[in-house]
Amino acid sequence: MTDREVARDVGLLLKYALDHTLTPGRHDTYNRLLDRYTTDPELRTAFEETAAGLGLRTLSADRATGLVLTAEIDSPLAVADTAPWLRITGAGDRMVYGVALGGVAAWCYPTARAVREPGTRRVTAVDVDRLIREHAAAVEAGEAELPAGLGPAWEEYSVHRKQIAVTKNTGQLKRGCTVKMCEEVLVMLSAFGLVVPDRTIPRPRPDLQVWRSTDRFRAHVAAGGGPLAWQTIVNTGSSALGEEET
Q: Scanning 26, 34, 123, 174, which has its CA 20 to 30 A from the CA of 48?
C-alpha cells in the first residue's frame, strides 16, 4: 500500500476507535481495518505512532469492543471537563467522586480473575455506596488500613456526607448525598461506553438506574493497575486528593 493509503486507513481506524458506539461486528469497514491492525505490522505501527502523537494508548483490541484507547492527561483528546456529569463545588466533592469512581471499579472487578476474563456485572449506585461504606466501617474497626494521606477522602465520604437525602416535594435524591453522587459517576461512565443501562430488572429507586459494566470498562480497570479492588479505590482517591483546591 502507498503511504497515502496507510495514512487514510490509520485515520479511519482512529475515527472508529474513538467512537464507543461502534463495534467491528456491526461495521464492515471497522471490521476490515481491525483485521489489518492485527495482521499487518505496517498499519499497526503507523496507527500506534499516530495515536502516541495524540497522547493516546491502546488498551485492547478484540472483536467484541474493537480498539479501546485511553488518553494521557496532557492529550488534547483527554476529558478536561466533567461538569456535564459531576457537580464539583470544592475539594470535598472531588474526594467523594474519586472514592465513588474507585468503588464502581471495585464492585465490577473485585478480583484478578474478574479483570482477566471477559464478562459484565450488574451495578447500581446503592451497590457501590454499600461497598464503600462497608470498607469504611472495616477501616474504623481496625480490620483494614488506608495508606497515609487518604483518610480525609474516606472521612468526607463516610462521615460528613449523608448516604440518602431526599427532597420534601418530590422525594428524589438530593445532590450531595453519596448514593446520588455514585449515580452521577455511573452516568458519566455511561457517556463513554464504560457502563450501559440494564433494563432487565426493576430500578432500586425511580431516580436511579440499573447499569451493567462493559469489556471496555474492564480494559480500563486492568490498565489502571489491575483489580485489587481496594487498591483501585485507593489510587482513585489519591488522584482526587491531588486535585484539592487551594
A: 26
DSSP letter for 174, please: P
3 state DSSP class of 170: coil
Indicate whether 62 and 97 sit together in one domain. no
**pLDDT > 90: percent of the chain:** 61
Query: What digits encode the pLDDT tens for the residues 117-157?
Result: 888 899 999 999 999 999 888 888 888 777 667 788 889 99
Place of cell 449515580: 183
- pLDDT value at 231 more than 60: no
Q: Indicate if 145 and 231 belong to the same structural domain.
A: yes
Q: List all residues 6 or more positions away from 212 whose beta carbon is below 8 Å from its beta carbon.
A: 120, 121, 122, 123, 195, 196, 197, 198
Domain count, the chain: 2
Task: State how far the Cα of 14 lies from the Cα of 31, in Å rounded to an integer.
Answer: 13
For the chain, the residue count is: 246
Q: Is 114 exposed, middle or buried (0-12, 13-18, 19+ CB in 10 A)?
A: middle
Q: Are 103 and 110 in contact (CB under 8 A)?
A: no
3-class SS at 69?
Answer: strand
**What nine digits make up the cell of 219?**
480494559
pLDDT at 246 over 60: no
Are residue 37 and residue 158 in the same domain, yes or no?
A: no
Q: What are phi and psi of 141, to 5 degrees?
A: -85, 0
Dist CA 169 CA 178 (whole Å) = 20
Domain boundary among 36, 71, 106: 71
In which domain, by residue range, is 132 found? 91-241
Is residue 231 domain-resident? yes
> What pLDDT is stored for residue 68 in this prediction?
93
